[in-house]
Amino acid sequence: MTATDAAAHRVNQVVDLDDERAGKLRRANLLIGLLHLAQGVVLLVLSTDFAIAITASYAEGPPGTAIGDVRTVFELLVGPAVAAFLLLAAADHLLVGGPLNGRYTKAIRRGSNPFRWLEYSVSATLMIGLIALLTGLTTMTALIAIVGANVAMIAAGHLMEKNNPPEREHTRWGAFRLGCLAGIFPWLAIAFQLAGSEATATDGEGVPTFVYGIFVSLFVLFFSFGVMQFLQFRGKGKFKDYVRGEYGYLVLSLVAKSVLAWQVFANVLIG
Fold first, then answer.
1. How do the pLDDT tens digits run along the chain, 271 residues long?
2. What is the pTM of this model?
């Protein structure tokens, strides 16, 4: 790369977050937190006791021998699980808009929000696990792998921010690529499960239409987070302003969680 090319790739951004903008961002977090909280409470109160069994089966001898009967490891109450990812988001936004606002503001000025990634590592992982369960992917071993891949994706998002402070001269994309790679595997597993269920379904049965709606809508929304980070670190356009990107994450988080929560409620959690 020539000196001219290197200069063209320099970023040297500064996070523009004066006290006025910080106050608006604080109020936005409080509003988003209250909206998550209200939805979580409503769903917790109105949901039925519908549960999905988490299953496992084990080999009964050396490799290649028959797998034993399917056993139930435990049953997951779907209503409280849905409420949980909403309440986790509520806790995150209310804390960073309240007692942790000083630390949050300092982190944003450094071009990073570790609170976001910590919350996503639990809430988004719970969401992808629920989506897998709704498609019939209920085995404990598969769910562990899905959880691990999703947490790796979230960790890569955090590393992307840590490796690319605002004063950087160029953007390092390794963590972003790693996150995209890790993030696609849970969706491949879910898509395989859907395809297999459809292929083996008898007449009049098969995967309900609403499950496909959940799969498509949440796939789009999940990967919109990746698009948001790409736009932030690409260094061009309005989203090169890190604070604009932060607002984008706030909106995406609310929309993704609300869309999943109410689709599940309308189709499986009402009496």
1. 444 444 344 455 668 889 899 999 999 999 999 999 999 999 999 989 999 999 999 988 888 888 888 999 999 999 999 999 999 999 999 999 999 999 999 999 999 999 999 999 999 999 999 999 999 999 999 999 999 999 999 999 999 999 999 888 899 999 999 999 999 999 999 999 999 988 887 776 778 999 999 999 999 999 999 999 999 998 777 888 899 999 999 999 999 999 999 999 999 988 6
2. 0.91
Q: Which two tokens stand for residue 174?
A: 């390794």
